[in-house]
Design goal:
This protein is α+β, with helices and mostly antiparallel strands and 253 residues long. It has a domain of 172 residues: 2-Layer Sandwich (60s Ribosomal Protein L30, Chain: A). Helices cover 49% and strands 11% of the residues. It contains six helices and five strands, in the order αααββαβαβαβ. The chain has a five-stranded mixed sheet with strand order 1-2-5-3-4. Strand 3, helix 5 and strand 4 form a beta-alpha-beta unit. Helix 4 packs across helix 5. It is elongated.
Length: 253
């Protein structure tokens, strides 16, 4: 009897032990799920950190591509963002084109011949004194080579383009150029003629502006500074130009 009772007791205890063992896989499964959750949380956190680092690196590289300044523009250096454009050319599109052109003209930028930056008005391509001889408006052969690199960028978007001429403060008074006003306007006009004739960009997209000597980017106290002021800026505009009444300026299109 004692043996039988003991045997039945042992069988009862064993059954309880077996029942508890049958539930232990839930604990293991729960631990596995917890570890997986921690693992994916760590991966997600690492990816977020890497994304932020990537954005910072991208911003730094973009800033190094863009340099220079221009009289009359509210932005210098690299300025991200912006929206709106003439006939479908948005701010982001101009920004991307700027990156591409900066890479293509990197050697010219290092020589000070080309400066590219993105501001409130749009994408500005500033071409230095290599375009013209002092007191002249005829394009040099080096200038045509630079414009050949710039023209595909202009052709990629339908935006209006303002071509703006500048001079140094050395006075001029000739039959062709009574003042620096005429000289700066002729320089800008000759740039447009070359772009239209060589790249077949519609002439109706262009505007000519002559600022003369009155918007320098450097003091006119050295030859180097005066050379910086003898420039032409090609501004691919974000927005279509309008008059005082807010109406689109007629370009003959």
């Amino acid at each position: 009897m004692i043996r039988g009772k003991g045997g039945n007791g042992a069988g009862h205890d064993g059954g309880g032990h077996d029942g508890a063992g049958g539930m232990r896989w839930l604990l293991t499964y729960s631990d596995l799920i917890t570890l997986l959750m921690v693992f994916f949380t760590v991966l997600y956190s690492m990816s977020r950190v890497d994304a932020e680092k990537f954005k910072a690196l991208a911003g730094s590289l973009r800033s190094s591509f863009f340099s220079g300044s221009s009289g009359g523009s509210s932005g210098t250096g690299f300025m991200p963002g912006g929206a709106g454009g003439a006939e479908g050319g948005g701010g982001d599109v101009l920004e991307d084109l700027g990156y591409e052109l900066a890479a293509e003209t990197e050697s010219l930028s290092s020589q000070g011949s080309v400066s590219i930056y993105y501001g409130d008005r749009g994408l500005t391509i500033s071409l230095g004194a290599v375009l013209f001889r002092p007191g002249e408006a005829d394009l040099l052969s080096e200038a045509k080579a630079i414009l050949d690199k710039v023209s595909p960028t202009i052709a990629k978007v339908p935006n209006y383009v303002s071509v703006e001429g500048y001079t140094d403060n050395l006075p001029i008074s000739t039959h062709d150029f009574p003042s620096n006003w005429e000289l700066s306007a002729r320089r800008a006009t000759n740039v447009i003629h070359y772009l239209v004739d060589s790249s077949k960009i519609p002439a109706s997209r262009f505007f000519v502006v002559g600022y003369g000597e009155y918007r320098p980017v450097a003091p006119n106290n050295t030859e180097r500074n005066r050379a910086m002021n003898r420039r032409v800026d090609i501004v691919i505009l974000k927005a279509a130009p309008v008059n005082d009444q807010g109406r689109l300026i007629d370009t003959g299109k």
